[in-house]
Amino acid sequence: MNKAPHEKELAITDKFTQKLRDLSYEATNQCVQCGYCLPACPTYESMGKESQSPRGRINLVKMAAEGKIDLQKDLVEPIDLCLGCRACEVACPVNVPYGQIYEAAKEVITEHQKHEHHKKQKNKPKIQTKVVDFTLTSLFPHRNRLRTLGNLTWLYQKTKINKVVQKTKMINKVSEPMGQFEKILPELEAPIKRYKYGQKFPALGETKAVIAFFPGCIMDAIMSKINRLTIELLQVIGCEVIIPKNQKCCGALHSHQGMKDGAVKLAKANIEAFEASGADYYVNNAGGCGAMLSEYNHLFGQEPEWKKRSEAFVGKSKDITEILVKFGPLPFKKEWNGIITYQDSCHLRNVQGVFQEPRELLRSIPGASFMEMEGSDRCCASGGIYNLMNFDESMKILDEKMYKAGKTNAKTIVTTNPGCLLQMKLGVERSGTGDDVDAKHIVEILAEACLIK
Ligand code: SF4
Ligand code: SF4
Questions:
Q1: Would you list the DSSP string of 52-67?
Q2: At 189, is the secondary structure helix, strand, or coil?
């Protein structure tokens, strides 16, 4: 029997509510509303609203799953404004899996939005949504396209067109955030110096371990020098390095944008590629990618064979700092002059639980004086593409971070994730301290102290 139009619509709405309920309801019920997570949340601190706190967001997801509030009207903004930094998970005394709740909400909201756009042809997706969709489906899964983009950026810098663009503020006319980020793009290394997928690098001296390296997408495209230095640091501490040929993007951005199917596809390809390497450890140098790789097992609840393979993958997945500490010490050859401070990558700290190793490595650099920054464990508001999508909120948090970094008198701000690194560079630029202060990835500073160029 054909349903009346209003009944049909109700059924579809129920489908999304039901999915949200299936994916997150049990987890939302674990929250005892104690509020211990509130002081840990950067968006609660900057916006001061319960709806922008972890407890508030959990409650809203719960109410949406019960059909008491509207998915689009009431849930989209609080979920969009969440940084996904997962500091609330660490603060929670009863281990509420906030990440799972957040990603379930993202997934259902994205599906619902697609359905709505499809239904009302006149209600075309916003340009911002189209750009994100294109980037995640047609750019990130294709590393050659990203490399081409990286090579074009190198050419753009080499021919000094970037100086003209900056002087005339051309990009700012299209988008102010893009204009600000263009200014702080690191100087790209010549394409000829790029490592190749499938290439092997021998250990210097005795081989202590075989490492399969995950170069990432952004790192591979625009920070390939940091990846090259990573490989060389691993070699000097006695690791053989392989770059598995058929690896893909980790899928973190897909997962955070609610594109779970895309993330699952990429995860399967990576598990296969890394298994084939036969390596002892799978190493990355990007906190955001590392967090995704370390949670591949969460993607395969319904597929026992992949669940098993993903658990083995997760067991071998490590951050570069863990490996450098495990197989070090590094052969430092230079005295560092000046104060260093460290900004945690949220995903490295809160998801992977790695925060001691980076500090241990920085403290071990001869001559360096390490100063802990107040709130170094709090998100810098880079958050994947959060800073592009929610520029004003992100800059409020970043400017406060720079004030705290300034109090350490550090000349070098170190971090461990490409997004955080760009955000730190932007923060330095915005604070007007660019002549004195620099932001670096931990691999850059360690390589420099070992005289690896
Ligand atoms: S993930 Fe970060 S921003 Fe989001 S609710 Fe938790 S602490 Fe707040
Ligand atoms: S998420 Fe955890 S810390 Fe936050 S209110 Fe719920 S139970 Fe308390």
A1: GSHHHHHHHHHHHHTT
A2: coil
- d(CA 112, CA 80) in angstroms, rounded, equals 14
Burial 241-277 (b: 16+ CB within 10 A, else e): bbbbeebbbbbbbbbbbbbbebbbebbbbbbebbbeb
In angstroms, what is the span from residue 100 Cα to ligand 2's centroid? Answer: 14
309 — phi, psi (to 5°)?
Answer: -65, -40
Nearest CA-CA partner of 324 in 240, 236, 440: 236
> From atom 6 of ligand 2, which residue's Cα is the shortest distance away?
31
Residues with CB under 6 A from ligand 1: 40-43, 54, 57, 82-88, 98
pTM for the structure as a whole: 0.88
Ligand 1 atom 7: residue of nearest CA:
41
What backbone phi and psi angles, to 5 degrees, belong to 360? -60, -45
pLDDT in tens, 343-384: 999 999 999 999 999 999 999 999 999 999 999 999 998 876
Among 299, 322, 320, which residue's Cα sits nearest to residue 311? Answer: 299
Q: Could you identify the residue written with the tokens 């490590």?
A: 318
Closest approach atom of ligand 2 to CA 30: 7
Q: What's the CA-to-centroid distance between 419 and ligand 1, angstroms?
A: 17
Cis before 191 (ω within 30): no
- Pocket of ligand 2 from Cβ distances under 6 Å: 31-37, 54-55, 58, 88, 91-92, 94, 96
User: pLDDT tens, 194-245?
Assistant: 999 999 999 998 999 999 999 998 889 889 999 999 999 999 999 999 999 9
Q: Which of 98, 255, 389 for mutating ligand 1's site (highest number of atoms within 8 Å of CB)?
A: 98
